[in-house]
User: Which sequence fits this backbone?
């Protein structure tokens, strides 16, 4: 199948389902034409998933499409932005039409679910990888950056941490994507790896409330440093306060679960800071969004650096957050 | 080297050289924050180059960085837009620091040359490929789309056609990137393949003058169809009028040179339509931009379809424009 027909057959036809009135021209010219509403800022982020690095090569096409979008949506959530448009660069070897159609179906379904429109992209022949550039919109005063954390702000995370790392461990021990014969606990943890929930609604509501925010892709212990560096502050994390699912605590020891939360990747929960004055507002936001929110520490003076405590004792994080090696 | 240090060492440090005052926040958060000036539309395009598909695996890193940017800049030129910001998704196997530094140097140099700012991206481990998403700006009435061609408009192209296809042929016959012992003609043609000139200035000046425009990436015979389809018109192309360099005519027969121009890829010249009333204005634009512009045919009623003539006789195009096979 040739390039233009591929895009048109599987993607372009489905792209009319959203209500993005600010898309003047979507797929089909040398570039998309977009109107950014007055008083809104434009947020842009790019993430690539590579076969064998970010997902197993026999991944289900629908799961791949979902996750590629989810990690990009999560970046918008971390900025407090409303996702609007995505470009898709899909590189793949010769794939059966069924694979492509399942990928496209899941992709367009997820776009619809989050009110995002596919505005263009490129399909090329080569080793399987997916690069998405996502665009979000938000009034200036509602955008959340990493650099606004203040001393004594509480540090919060959404959902539960460490599930995805446990899920990865299970998949590795069970012939990768072979999930037959696994119990409900294992399946839950695997789904948390394959289908993370981007916290878009929460991110939107945190705008104007959180003083800083990011999404957890490489583990709390490593990711929090980005906030500390950008805000020129320190932090203390209470390890026993880390929210962990009953599934991960059933699957492994408490100690191992802590490690997963602190150094495991792929949770895509939000980590953010909020002043005590806004703590009640935050409670209401959590209720509005139907997401649990847990205080896991507080911001300190910069000279105190980053410290972890457990049972009122200093706690040493076993290893630093995951980063791609070159 | 780890992901964050890679970006910061090679790219982020150099990214302050442009004068894009509308970049509120560039590299370093979950997303870039951008201000789109009032009354400007946003143009977005994405192109991927894959090793072994779009370039030889032993490509010089500087040439790869240049070309990846050039093909994206060319998309902005085709819309009449002014390039503003780029995101870079660079996937590569373990590369020596020198390779990465040469890639980054050429990338940032080219950004500077075209007044474009690197606003973010992703570096991942995997088979070599480069995906760039480019953003351009332009007032609404100056954006050029494919769908505006009118019956009797002249069809024009910039520069010369077919050089890149000849260059590819030479490289294939000479152990790929091995260029020692080649004469000036061969070198010129190879450079036209490796270092196409995006016609950004021309594209900007064509806004409000050209009725349609695209850039030639797959050969005139195939690419012109996109204008015809979008505009619901036909076209007649005068094959003998195709502008061809003295180099390509020295390298091969006239007949083969025609084929290169019509069905060879990678020229990245602009093809556009202009009404006779604006023909003089066009001449002035060509002078302003220092680019040769050649009339190669005219737009016809849709029922006449697409036809080619040579020596007043119907001419049959040997093969259709290049498209990536899946």
Assistant:
């Amino acid at each position: 199948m040739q390039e233009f027909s591929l895009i048109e057959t599987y993607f372009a036809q489905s792209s009319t389902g959203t209500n993005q009135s600010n898309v003047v021209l979507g797929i089909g010219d040398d570039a998309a034409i977009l109107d950014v509403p007055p008083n809104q800022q434009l947020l842009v982020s790019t993430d690539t998933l590579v076969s064998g690095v970010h997902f197993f090569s026999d991944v289900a096409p629908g799961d791949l499409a979902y996750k590629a979008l989810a990690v990009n949506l999560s970046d918008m959530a971390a900025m407090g932005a409303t996702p609007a448009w995505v470009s898709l660069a899909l590189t793949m070897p010769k794939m059966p039409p069924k694979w492509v159609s399942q990928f496209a179906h899941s992709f367009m379904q997820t776009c619809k679910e989050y009110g995002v429109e596919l505005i263009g992209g490129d399909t090329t022949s080569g080793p399987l990888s997916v690069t998405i550039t996502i665009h979000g919109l938000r009034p200036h005063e509602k955008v959340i950056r990493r650099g606004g954390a203040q001393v004594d702000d509480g540090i919060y995370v959404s959902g539960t941490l460490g599930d995805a790392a446990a899920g990865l461990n299970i998949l590795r021990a069970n012939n990768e994507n072979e999930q037959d014969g696994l119990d409900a606990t294992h399946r839950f943890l695997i789904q948390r790896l394959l289908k993370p929930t981007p916290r878009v609604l929460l991110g939107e509501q945190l705008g104007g409330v959180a003083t800083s925010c990011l999404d957890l892709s490489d583990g709390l212990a490593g990711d929090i440093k980005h906030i500390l560096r950008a805000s020129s502050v320190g932090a203390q994390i209470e390890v026993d306060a880390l929210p962990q699912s009953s599934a991960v605590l059933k699957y492994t020891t408490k100690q191992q679960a802590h490690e997963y939360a602190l150094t495991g990747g792929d949770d895509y929960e939000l980590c953010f800071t909020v002043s005590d004055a806004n703590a009640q507002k935050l409670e209401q936001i959590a209720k509005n969004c139907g997401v649990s929110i847990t205080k896991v520490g507080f911001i300190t003076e910069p000279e105190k650096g980053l410290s972890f405590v457990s049972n009122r004792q200093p706690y040493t994080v076993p290893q630093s957050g995951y980063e791609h090696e070159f």
